[in-house]
Amino acid sequence: MAEVLGRAFRRNEDFELLTGRALFVDDVQLPGMLHAAFVRSDFAHARLSGVDLEAVRRHPGVVGAWSAEDLGDYWQPGPLLVPPPPIERLTFHARTQVPLARGKVRHAGEPVAVIVAESRYVAEDAAALALVDAEPLPAVVDLERALEPGVALVHEDLASNVAAHVIQERGDYAAARAAADLRIARRFRYDRGAAAAIENRGIVADWNPRARELTVWDTTQAPIPIRNGLARMLDLSESQVRVVAPFIGGGFGPKIMMFYPEEVLIPWIAIRLERPVKWIEDRRENFFATTQEREQIHDAELAIAADGRILGVRDEFLHDCGAYDPYGLTVPINSQCTLLGPYEVPAYRSEFRAVFTNKPIVTPVRGAGRQHGVFVIERLLDLAARELGIDRLEIRRRNYLAPGAFPHDNNIIFQDFAPLVYDSGNYAPALEKAAEIIGYEAFVREEQPRLRAEGHRRGIGIVSYVEGTGIGPYEGARVSVEPSGRVSVATGVGTQGQGHFTSFAQIVAEVLGVDPAEVAVSTGDTREFHWGTGTFASRSTVVAGSACHGAASAVRQKALELAAGILGVTSDDLVLEGGRVSVRNDAGRSVALGELASRANPLRGAVRPGAEPGLEASSYFGPDRGSTASGVHACVVEVDPETAEVRVVRYLVVHDCGRVINPMIVEGQIHGGVAMGIGNAFYEQLVFDADGQLLNASLMDYLLPTATDVPAVETAHMETPSPLNPLGVKGVGEAGAIPVGAAFAQAIEDALPEYGLEILEIPLSPNRLFELLERKRKEALP
Amino acid sequence: MERAPLLQRTPIVPIVNGTPRESEVEPRLLLSDFLRHDLGLTGTHVGCEHGVCGACTVLMDGRAVRSCLLFAVQADGCEVVTVEGLTEAGADGGGDGRLHPLQAAFREAHALQCGFCTPGFLMTLIPFLEENPDPDEGEIRAAISGNLCRCTGYQNIVAAVRRAAETLRG
Q1: Are A662 and A541 in contact (CB under 8 A)?
Q2: Which chain A residue shows the shortest CA-CA distance from B138?
Q3: Yes or no, beta carbons of B114 and A247 under 8 Å apart
């Protein structure tokens, strides 16, 4: 079948999802299954003297209850998931989360005991009977105060709350600064939000004592690392542990291989009790016990020439890790690297301190620190453009890397430990396309003034970004053709809605000449495929997709060689189409793929030495480094200066994720990313008080954008293929979410030029925007 | 081990997807838990348990309700329809012919990604389309503004509803 790639095939997985048949973790029901509930700390920071579970254990229906003291040798801090990258002068203190707090609690909601009972209702009844003996300590909440002398320490074995200190630089910023015609220095803030997948986390563990096998259903984005880690912790061989990530109701980062306390404890309990145990997070727990992201404070300076050319950037920032730092420095390194954007930045000095606080743990959430970098550089350019009297688009044009500049080495280290090298890109055409589609010139010249005259305050925002995607180390896939002709693909990455059942099927179908609807894809089950890492960093299509392509190509080669022997021609004379291998221009001479699969697995006769049976092949793909996607976001907003209500009138994304496998899926990723970005920019903020208590831990109080808040997103594709993989693809999962704050801020400022607003923080909210406007109104008073 | 206390149990007979289901339940059992765990109808999903996300929406006597905000005992004698009730019994193939036109439109328009919120959207929209066979975009967006989706940005859901409305109008 020709042209399978690049076409908007309907998704193979939709039937199950639409009819309520798809298996999510909470749908797993096993005979004799018990249910767990966790007792969590009410305090953000407290000395923990003990947890009395006597009354809990006496409660009818309770089968077991454990505090840290009851875990024996199983109590171990979790693994350091991502060690610090090889950057000179880097300091990093790994302090990873523990299964149950012992001696001290470090954030509100940290688990201190687990209770297992005949039903979740009973387990929660009993949880209320636990007596937690805790002495509150001053909470470390504010990022800057966390570094003041004499402040409480989140980890008392460290000299301060600094978790890491990293400096990366290239060129000579001091010289650039001295040579600059203009320097723009500002402080930028980004605050915390929740990933808020609609499905909360959950885990079901089932120990079969006869087979000595553990099966775990886990809402994880990375079932293979979880299997390997659980095997190690539980002293089982990897082949005794099967981890299944079935359909997952949204991931967005926090469902990565975290080894959350619940993930580590439920399997251990299931083995001890020899009964299946289920724990499903409730929404309130999700606000405390699932990782979050985004609090950073940047002090950044741009050194720029009068003609708008960037001479250098200096950035010093604080990054909030929360109470532990198991995911290493991925988020702040992403911020540091993404700030460079699509621009030529000759001198760059970036220094950050990661800081422990008494708040939930920070790990990547869709965008994973890239938002901050984009926000800082785009805002600096906007301010410089204003100051220099250069058009916003023009200042970007003057600084884009030229199409001939690739591969472009930024001379700093990225989150994947490789040098930050952009593989390919073509930035200016995306800007021109965005400007054309959104009608930038006409808007600025005619529409905006006309609307202003009518009393409407509309503004336009237009920003660029790059996104490091598709990082290694590797993924694998196995492609098989059965004698029935059925084609199946197994890969290890988990799937949380990205359409892998369809895009991987398309990749294989293209190579094997079959219908993608007939290709069965398995993801996220370690029994089906047990090599790989997981779904994160917009990498599945790039890395696992390339492995699918490799495996399918090997199967194709095998099929051609077999068919050549049967049909008495050379394989060059053969074509694969419609599930058959046929002689070119002689379709009457052909053999079905299923027949070849039978021949490749004979019951009698000799097989050539070295031949592998079956029409099957596995392949692995590991890119040298990530591929760099890019794009432009443009939006038009209308602001009511009296109420500070902001309405998004238009939102456009011109993006370049290399070759597109399924445009429908890619656009869906963009739509959803933008919706999350709009939430991040204007609705969503986790509010902690001075004691580290989260004040809005419900969906009543933490506002996710609804259908009446999110506009229809327009999209346009550019395709600059990546040279780093056989498909030429780049990742797209996070692109929609990353630059929204920057576009939004620029558009609001543009809507209200008379205020001279400088929006230097995200998230905004109607309240916060109102405050900023009031401040300007007061300043304007005589 | 002590037995769980014999909590008061109440007999109920809700009619679920057309079948009377005689049950005895604790008065505090949520309708969502009853459907999912007692009846095994796991297509109804639970996202927040405080009535905001809408993932658990089912029909009760023809009206869209949040099953996490109701007790199972409140459904006694009521007609309850879950997402499993939208397709013909025994529909196990991948053929769209067995999908409700709304489900088929969701597939055509790529109105779902992870699919976790989808059953709630479908059950919210069934009575909406009965009452509003030809809704405009604003009406559709208002109708689904009580259902949260974190994946799609809603626009393909809106497109799917328009497509389904067209099909249903015939």
Answers
A1: no
A2: A708
A3: yes
Chain B CA closest to residue A286? B48
CA atoms of A143 and A189, how far apart (whole Å): 11
Beta bridge pairs of residue A299: A187, A316
d(CA A530, CA A707): 39
Beta carbons of B52 and A12 less than 8 Å apart:
no
C-alpha–C-alpha distance, residues A478 and A481, integer Å: 10
ipTM entry = 0.96
- Say if CB A205 and CB A270 are below 8 A apart: yes
Take residue A483 and report the two structure tokens written for it.
């004698």
> A-chain residues within 8 Å CB-CB of B44?
20
DSSP letter (8 states) at residue A13:
T
String of DSSP letters for A571-639: GGGEEEETTEEEETTEEEEEEEHHHHHHHTS-SSS---TTPPPSEEEEEEE--SS-EEEEEEEEEEEEE
pLDDT digits (tens, 9 = 90+) for A490-511: 999 989 999 999 999 999 999 9
Q: Do A17 and B112 touch (CB under 8 A)?
A: yes
Chain CA centroid to CA A310, Å:
30
Taking residue B169's Cβ as centre, other Cβ atoms within 10 Å add up to 9
Report the gap between the CA of B26 and the closest CA in chain A (Å).
10
Q: How many helices (H) and strands (E) does chain B have?
A: 5, 7
Which residues 124-153 of B have a C-beta within 8 angstroms of A? 140-142, 144-153
Q: What are the backbone dihedrals phi and psi of residue A281, each rounded to the nearest 5 degrees, phi first?
A: -65, 140
Task: Quote the tokens at residue A565.
Answer: 């022997």
Res A263 pLDDT > 90 = yes
CA distance A619 to chain B (A): 27
Q: Give the Cβ contact number of residue A147 at 10 Å.
A: 15
Residue A621 burial by Cβ neighbours in a 10 Å radius (0-12, 13-18, 19+):
buried
Identify which of A599, A631, A608, A623 has the alpha carbon closest to the alpha carbon of residue A537.
Answer: A623
Position A278 scores a pLDDT of: 98
Beta strand A645-656 with A713-718: parallel, antiparallel or unpaired? parallel
Q: Chain A within 8 Å of B84 (Cβ-Cβ)?
A: yes
Minimal-distance CA residue of chain B relative to A122: B4
Q: How many other CB atoms are there within 10 angstroms of residue A443's CB atom?
A: 20
Contact of B113 with chain A, judged by CB distance below 8 Å, is answered with: yes
Q: Give the pLDDT of residue B97.
A: 64
